[in-house]
Amino acid sequence: MSLPTDRKYTASHEWIKAEGDVFAVGITDNAQDQLGDLVFVGDVNVGARLAAGETAGVVESVKAASDIYAPVAGEIVAFNEELEANPALVNESPYTAWIFKIKPDNAADLDGLLDAAGYQAASA
Amino acid sequence: MSAPLKRTALAEEHLAAGARMVDFGGWEMPLAYGSQLEEHHAVRQSAGMFDVSHMLNVDVSGAGSRDFLRRLIANDVDRLAASGKALYSCMLNPEGGVIDDLIVYFFTPERWRVVVNAATADKDVAWMRRVAASGGFDVAIAPRRDLAMIAVQGPEARERVWAVRPAWRAASEALAPFSAAQVADDTLVARTGYTGEDGFEIVLPAAQAPALWRELAAAGVRPCGLGARDTLRLEAGMNLYGQDMDELIQPGEAGLSWTVSLKDPQRRFIGRDALERHAVPAAFLGLKLLERGVMRAHMAVRTAQGDGEITSGTMSPTLGVSVGFARLPAGVRPGDAAQVEIRGKWVPAQVCKLPFVRHGKAVEHS
């Protein structure tokens, strides 16, 4: 699967995409492939204020749990509740199945993250 | 520095199929070939196969075999009267801790087979030889790394095996569960497994394993990795050595009292004194999580009787909820309430009997 170029990436395998004044965050195809079949997505605290790099939630495959991090500082404003019943959506369409949305303290923080080519190089 | 990983006779098949390989007890083994959940469901609904060649077959032969095995193993091999019958049990250390769990097959009073776990195989063989030497038993102990082992499991498993090996049908069709038939030289078909489904475990010369694997795959048997093997055995209520029990854990603390025979007071198997004098009281039961989340090994458990620990946990693909095994204070019973600590939160769970799934169906727990 080729990496969408309409968003940014982190070295910890999140993608982050601007949607108006909030950013949607999910995990990359590479990340879901490494994790395997997801069976739980959650522990996202809507309303929590996080620094960049802080744990924002968890994704669990049959085998293991893995934290997902806030790519930028801000406030968690939404959790994708569709994933409660169907965590496999992240496996099936990682780039549309967003996990949480964050309202950034500083929208320009996005510019400091990796672009598609940068992520590809970092995760190769 | 760690030694290079060992490979089974089927490693090339796994790599060619695009399996994700992992280190399991020093062996490079397939974790999954694609979707681990689909592999799990294939075994519950039709047929899947596992390369279990990393486990070690050990031949025990000689006039002293029976006496040796009655000393070595916590269950009593005198229960095995018919040729091909098998028994699941443990080897214990003098403190009653589990050195390994194993299956022992009886063929003749002078010819037996013991199958042990991969990660413990060297330790097990050394222990068997020590017990044989110190007791002066007239036995030969021969590890058989020349053999491979394929587990074919699921409601359609036996039919698929017969479809590709029609000659084996006559000898294996009438096999009762937990018994085996020799179908060719060094080729054993056993009606055993680690999934809670019907099926066979096939032991055969390593050189013949790749052809059988390919033919089974062509006959619709889905290759399955260690990931599915773990969720299947958990649903089936079967213990994993190193996780649910080890050398510091007695069988009774791991739900394995049924594999220990104290019936014959004359039979002083290793560990018996410890079990009789200082048996550690504990309950070993299932847990079902009542809310979303996934139980994992080592998570803390609270009950009205005191604290315990999850030894194995996962999301059950068949039930759609998290299930696990827990070592709990003696007195905890199926139906009791419990809480499991998941990332700092106490999540409600129900104590229940094992297994969770048997022959493709959820076991009802009131």
The CATH topology label of the largest domain in chain B is Gyrase A, domain 2
Give the CATH H-level superfamily of the largest domain in chain B. Answer: Probable tRNA modification gtpase trme, domain 1
Termini separation of chain A comes to 14 Å
Text of the CATH class of chain A:
Mainly Beta
Intertermini distance of chain B: 51 Å
Pair of chains with the largest interface and how many residues each contributes:
A-B, 14 and 17 residues
Number of helices of chain B: 9
Number of strands of chain B: 21
**What about the largest sheet of chain B?**
6 strands, mixed
Helix residue percentage of chain A: 10-25%
Would you kindly provide a brief summary of this structure?
Chain A is α+β, with helices and mostly antiparallel strands and 124 residues long. Chain A has helices at residues 29-35, 82-85, 89-92, 116-123, and strands at residues 8-9, 14-19, 22-27, 38-42, 49-50, 55-61, 65-69, 74-79, 100-104. In chain A, the strands form two sheets. In chain A, strands 1-2-3-9-8-5 form a six-stranded antiparallel beta sheet. A three-stranded antiparallel beta sheet of chain A has the order 4-6-7, with no helix packed on it.
Q: Could you describe the 3D structure shown?
A:
The complex is a heterodimer of chains A (124) and B (366). Chain A is of the alpha+beta class and 124 residues long. Chain A contains four helices and nine strands. Chain B is 21% helix and 33% strand. Chain B folds into three domains: 11-54 and 146-235, Probable tRNA modification gtpase trme, domain 1 (Gyrase A, domain 2, 2-Layer Sandwich), CATH 3.30.1360; 56-143, Aminomethyltransferase beta-barrel domains (Alpha-Beta Plaits, 2-Layer Sandwich), CATH 3.30.70.1400; 281-362, Aminomethyltransferase beta-barrel domains (Elongation Factor Tu (Ef-tu), domain 3). Chain B has 366 residues and is an alpha+beta fold. Chain B contains nine helices and 21 strands. The termini of chain B are far apart. At the A-B interface, β4 and β6 of A face α8 of B.
